[in-house]
Each structure stands twice: as structure tokens, then as C-alpha cells.
């Protein structure tokens, strides 16, 4: 019965002068999975809420800073993995420090238009009295979204200094995957 109705409906459309193609529901194309977010799809910044600011004035334990990505494109896209983060220092002796990654496993984040996701950076602040060669004074963060080559340049807004461990195999300053 169903195929007779489809044939009658199709014949009526052809008589009216419009061609149509009937596709069974089982043959309908599957909805495409969103593709990854590109740097041009995103905007980025430091989380500035009171609960998101790192405690740079304390020097006894690690603290965290958070960087967010917002999908500003008109499409849904995904982020998965670690951002690339290079810190540039304010002191002549600081240079650039490429942050190590944690051992946490990344998850795939789906970002609709306007959605935001963040990632954390663990930091080990030190006292101002720490010898200059042992401290890194952050000035800018060059942040590259996962699997991209173009970066955002973010000015470090929190002050303070970090124990310089840019050559350490297990530094106390490192980053976590996007979404964790």
C-alpha cells in the first residue's frame, strides 16, 4: 500500500511540472559529524572571575589559571587534546617557556556557536625574594588551539612569578587538556 501511495504522489508531482525524488527513510544521508575548530573559529582569553584567578601571592602550593576558547563561528565544531602554550617572560633572562602537558587523557568537546570551553594551567608561584635565575615572570601567553598552527597572544593579567622549571622533566607548572 505504501509504495502505491508513493507512486501516486510522485505522479501528481510530475504532472504538476515539478520533479521529485523519493528516498526511503533508511537511505537518508546520515548527519555529518562536526569537524574540528580552527583558530579562526575561536576567540580566547583568561578566565577572570574571582574563583578562576590564580593565587599568585601565595608561594606554598600550586595554583591554577584558566584559559577559555569560545566558538565564534556559525558552525558546530570540536576541540580535543592539548592547546600549545608558550609563555614569554618579562625579564631579559626569561625567554620563552613551552609548557609541558599533564598525563590526563583528553576528551572530545563539541562546541555549538557561542559555546565556551576552558583548560587549566597548573602554576607554582614563588616569592619576589627568590633569586632572579630561579624565577620566571610571565608577560604573554602564546596559545595555540589543539591541532592548529596559528596562536592567540594573551597578556598575563595576574602578576607574580613562577618557579623556573623550563628544563625539568616533571615541572610543577604544566597544562591540562581542553575540557578538563
Features:
1 helix; four-stranded antiparallel sheet; elongated; mainly beta; about 180 residues; five-stranded mixed sheet
Detailed description of the structure:
The protein has 180 residues and is mainly β. The chain contains 1 helix and 14 strands; from the N terminus they run H-E-E-E-E-E-E-E-E-E-E-E-E-E-E. The protein has one helix at 2-15, and strands spanning 35-36, 42-46, 63-71, 77-80, 84-89, 96-98, 100-101, 108-111, 116-123, 135-136, 138-144, 152-155, 162-163, 174-175. The protein has a 5-stranded mixed beta sheet with strand order 2-3-9-14-7, with no helix packed on it. A 4-stranded antiparallel beta sheet has the order 6-5-11-12, with no helix packed on it. A hairpin with a 6-residue loop joins strand 5 and strand 6. The longest helix is centred in the first third of the chain and has 14 residues, at 2-15.
Low-confidence spans: pLDDT under 50, at least 5 residues? Answer: 1-23
**Biggest β-sheet description:** 5 strands, mixed
Mind telling me the C-alpha Rg?
Answer: 25 Å
Average pLDDT value?
87
Helix and strand pattern: HEEEEEEEEEEEEEE
Q: How many strands in all?
A: 14
Helix vs. strand class: mainly beta
**Relative helix content:** under 10%
Overall spatial form:
elongated
Percent of residues in β-strands: 25-35%
N-to-C terminal Cα separation, in Å? Answer: 54 Å
Strands in their spatial order, largest beta sheet: 2-3-9-14-7
Amino acid at each position: 500500500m505504501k509504495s502505491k501511495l508513493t507512486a501516486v504522489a510522485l505522479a501528481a508531482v510530475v504532472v504538476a511540472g515539478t520533479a521529485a525524488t523519493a528516498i526511503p527513510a533508511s537511505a537518508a544521508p546520515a548527519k555529518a559529524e562536526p569537524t574540528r575548530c580552527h583558530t579562526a573559529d575561536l576567540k580566547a582569553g583568561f578566565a577572570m572571575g574571582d574563583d578562576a584567578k590564580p593565587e599568585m601571592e601565595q608561594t606554598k602550593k600550586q595554583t591554577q589559571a584558566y584559559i577559555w576558547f569560545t566558538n565564534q563561528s556559525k558552525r558546530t565544531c570540536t576541540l580535543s587534546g592539548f592547546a600549545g602554550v608558550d609563555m614569554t617572560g618579562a625579564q631579559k633572562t626569561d625567554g620563552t617557556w613551552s609548557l609541558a602537558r599533564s598525563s590526563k587523557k583528553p576528551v572530545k568537546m563539541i562546541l555549538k556557536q557561542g559555546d565556551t570551553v576552558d583548560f587549566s594551567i597548573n602554576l607554582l608561584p614563588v616569592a619576589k625574594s627568590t633569586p632572579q635565575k630561579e624565577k620566571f615572570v610571565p608577560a604573554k601567553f602564546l596559545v595555540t588551539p589543539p591541532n592548529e598552527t596559528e596562536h592567540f597572544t594573551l597578556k598575563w593579567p595576574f602578576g607574580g612569578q613562577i618557579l623556573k622549571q623550563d628544563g625539568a622533566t616533571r615541572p610543577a607548572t604544566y597544562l591540562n587538556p581542553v575540557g578538563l
